[in-house]
Design goal:
Blueprint: E1 6-10, H1 19-31, E2 34-41, H2 54-75, H3 77-81, E3 86-92, H4 96-106, E4 111-115, H5 121-126, H6 130-137, E5 142-145, E6 155-159, H7 168-187, E7 193-199, H8 204-209, H9 215-236, E8 244-248, H10 251-261, E9 264-270, H11 276-282, H12 285-290, E10 296-300
Parallel strand pairs: 1-2, 1-4, 2-3, 4-5, 6-7, 6-9, 7-8, 9-10
Antiparallel strand pairs: 5-10
């Protein structure tokens, strides 16, 4: 069971407020552990300095790195003065995704926190944003932080997939609930955990092609299957029925609505890490959900996930 004692915070270089660092401090104050504030930087003007000597180029890199390290330290100075254990690390790297994941691997970090950014949907289909790539490829859980204060008496929502389409869903659901219960006990007094799931509506094209087809029978049967699966899951963890919710609709609509209704501080969601063409055409539920959430998102991979980016020890 991950205790989230070794946190990596991806610092946003474009703003002076760092919600991800603030959330990491919140977790450490309640759960213990240490924080590394990490920032990979690269100055495009460096590519235009080929006429300079190697020593001059090296001095330029070091100057930029030291300047940004001082800036990160300024961002964290209130926490440092309060005695929070924060290591500041700034490196020269022109690929933020690789730099962050390699730092996760090399530093054996068990949780990555990053501020969530919203992107234009059309642009995202062409240029995969850093947030999306981290959700897909990071080997440890990823906590995407919205710029919100944790709500008073806030709950934790766990989005579970109760369909029988893939065998790994049952194992992943169990993993999500186990990790959520463990985390909730550590950071929240008298935590309330809600299990949330959705099921699709009856396809209208079938109703048109088959006159005798009754969509209501299909919906009732599908809802019944999900309710039975939810009962089995909640009983495994001794969760009261009033804390379980099965709604009709798409997860990217139902999950944000339920989180707002439940006053959730964070929703825990499993992500398979689909890449390539399947990701472009099918997408990942977490990615569709994150832009519509008003609370944080904690994305967890299934057991056996293989990170496509390897460690770089140089």
């Amino acid at each position: 069971m991950a205790n989230y004692q070794n946190l990596l915070v991806a610092i946003d270089p474009n703003q002076d407020d760092q919600p991800a660092l603030r959330r990491a401090v919140y977790l450490v104050q309640r759960n213990g552990g240490r924080i590394k504030a990490f920032l990979p930087i690269y100055d495009l003007s460096y590519d235009m300095t080929t006429l300079l000597s190697p020593e001059e180029r090296d001095a330029m890199r070091k100057g930029v790195v030291n300047q940004r390290a001082a800036w990160v330290k300024q961002q964290a100075h209130y926490y440092l003065e309060a005695g929070i254990d924060i290591e500041i690390k700034v490196i020269w790297h022109n690929k933020p995704l690789e730099a962050i994941i390699q730092e996760v691997i090399n530093g054996k970090h068990d949780l990555l926190l990053k501020m969530a950014h919203q992107y234009d949907k059309f642009e995202s289909l062409i240029f995969t944003p850093l947030d999306w790539n981290l959700l897909r490829k990071c080997p440890c859980p990823v906590w995407m932080v919205k710029d919100n204060i944790w709500p008073d008496h806030g709950s934790i929502a766990v989005a579970v997939n109760l369909s029988n389409e893939e065998s790994y869903h049952d194992e992943l659901n169990i993993k999500l609930v186990e990790k959520t219960q463990d985390l909730a006990k550590r950071i929240i007094k008298d935590p309330t955990i809600h299990l949330v799931s959705s099921y699709p509506v009856a396809p209208l094209n079938i109703a048109i092609e088959l006159p005798d087809y009754d969509p209501s029978l299909y919906n009732n049967a599908l809802r019944g299957q999900h309710l039975i699966a939810m009962k089995e899951l909640r009983q495994k963890f001794s969760i009261d029925e009033k804390y379980t919710h099965v709604q009709e609709g798409l997860p990217e609509k139902i999950i944000p609505e339920m989180c707002e209704e439940l006053n959730a501080g964070v929703v825990v969601l499993g992500i398979v890490g689909r890449t390539g063409l399947s990701a472009a055409f099918l997408g990942n539920t977490a990615e569709h959900v994150v832009d519509k959430l008003k609370c944080d998102l904690l994305a967890i991979k299934p057991d056996g996930f293989v990170c496509p980016i390897t460690s770089d020890d140089e």
